[in-house]
Amino acid sequence: MVKHKRLIGIVTSLFMLVTMTGTTAFATEQNADLDIQTDTQVTEEQTAPEGGELTDEVQPEVQPEVQPEDQATLDEGMELAAGTMTVDPIPAQVYTGSAIEPELVVKDGETVLTEGMDYTVTFEHNKAVSAKWPKAIVKGAEGSAYAGQTVPVKFTIKKPTVARVTGLKALAGYKEIKLKWNKVEDADTYLIMRGDKKWGKKGWPRNLAKLGAYKSTDGKLKPSVAKHPFWENNVKGTVKMYKKYSYKVYAARYVVYADDSKSKYTETTKLVKSKVRTLKKRQCVSKLRIRCTIKSGTTLTSTNGKKHFKLKRGMKIMTDGYGGGKYSFFKKGAHFRFMNVRAKNRKAYYSTSKDYSEEEAEYFINNKNLKFARPSKTSKKYLIWASLYTQQVHIFQKADDGKRWEQIKVWDCSSGSASAPSPTGNCSIGKRIEWRHHIHYWNCFSTLNALHGIKPAQYAGYNWVRYLGHIKSNGCIRNANDNAEWIWDHCPKGTKVLVF
Fold first, then answer.
1. What is the pLDDT of residues 421-433, one digit of tens each?
2. Can you give the pLDDT at residue 367?
3. How far apart are CA 82 and CA 66, in angstroms?
4. CA distances from 311 to 107, 162, 343 (A)
5. How far is CA 386 from CA 236, 343, 346, 416, 451, in A?
6. 450/393 Cα distance (integer angstroms)
7. What is the CATH number of the domain that holds 477?
8. The domain containing residue 306 runs over which residues?
9. Of the residues 12, 87, 96, 408, which has the maximum number of CB atoms within 10 A of its CB?
10. For the chain, what is the domain count?
């Protein structure tokens, strides 16, 4: 038994010895191969290039990049496993009048894709206001992982807002009103509406579309009903009229609407307007008016000789002018005059609180209809306007360019009463008297009437200064003494005077 154990140990020792010897030999052979490769590399590297020197530097070994065998298979797998494009909802867009192309967010899962590389976008029906028709079409780009995919996305184009008109005011002219307001951004035009008592409690038409407004080929807004009595369109805001009216001004723009109610896509043009801005009861520059009761009748002939008017006893007539001992009025589109002696129970209508602004006064006096007031019609430096309606005197000076009048002074005055009105019309300073009837500075604008100063209370019997701003005189236009003196010093004979 012991012999067998010894025999097994000897055999095991021999096996281990043989195994170790083989491993050492294999390692030696591998090292030999490595030495051969290294020597060859060094030999090749130490070979000097032509015309160069041999150096001892050993260049580092450059290992070739090894492409994994399964890389191609991996790429093919990614292409085959590409996801699906999705598009985030597009927020509502506001109409601009041009094609709308909102920015899109296109994703594959959580990954945001790149336009041009991964997809392309086209738009349809993206110019008109609509909740149904505007559409963005996203297509996978050719050669990309999303080629062949198409994602249509609808969005809404809503109508724009138009800002409310602000700063609305009116300048009173001769037989016209000039409405002014602040410019409204993006407004194509403005709608001016006027109303009076004829509208009753409703006051205004409820729907502007009833007026038949439309856009013509030249881009301007025009009414389908010619000369509609309650419709005006003028960017300058000039409206001609003689009565008191209230005005509403809308800022408006034209918007193209897609007709969503029809199955076939169509477009219609509609008007979008702002909230209204109202200006109440404005009128042209007013005249002092005198209501008379006729005490003896007659038949009148118009000043142009074409029409006749029967003046009856007891008839009430509202006059708007006076001169040569006669009242004047308009009736049936013609101008008539009748003698002062035919009237009784006279009552004057004027304002004790109305004041024309400087801008308004200049607009009136420079109005193209007042041809006699043009600066080119006179060589004098100044022009005087006596407003009998407001009981004020306005002084204008010719501008440096000589083309318009500029207001430099205004003050209260006192003109003729209803029974002895101041003569109206276009006059000029004629005779000048420095002192008369205890009154200074007579600047006569007619035969018997003048712009003059104040009579002292001890001679007048009452204080004339208290009545400045009210009708009180016998036809002359009274002014404070310093103002009458200013006219005397600066306005020579021939200076134009408008009594209106």
1. 999 999 999 999 9
2. 86
3. 27
4. 90, 54, 11
5. 28, 25, 22, 12, 9
6. 13
7. 2.40.440.10
8. 289-349
9. 87
10. 4
